[in-house]
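Researcher: Please predict.
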Amino acid sequence: MNFIFLPIQIFLTVFLLFALSRVFLRFREGKIGLGQFLFWCGLWILAIFTIFNPGATHYWAQLLGIGRGADVVLYASVIALFYLVFRLHVFIEDIHHDITKLVREVALLSADQGGHKQQENKSKRQKRQQVSRKK
């Protein structure tokens, strides 16, 4: 067997192994769940497989009626990126709504506490005025 690797194959493999190591670390730290772990590991392993077996993309291209294997990878990547951007957008909107709700609650609590303090200060002033009038 003749194992001659192109520089781009080596570079991409090193990068993908680094990405795979980050997935393992995030999973071990508990920052991602099992589903996300399996998704990202599968994606990076599939990418490594594709780097060393580009003919597989040609097979999928023929199956889907697309001209070249590289086009299949590009189309799939664009679709995946759009989906991930959509998910991020929904996530950010949810956070925005949660922050708005939290700020409203804090403002109401702060206003309520401020009202009690004003009443306390007013009653203290009245008591001082009464004491000073008696003198």
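Model: The chain is about 85% helix and 0% strand.
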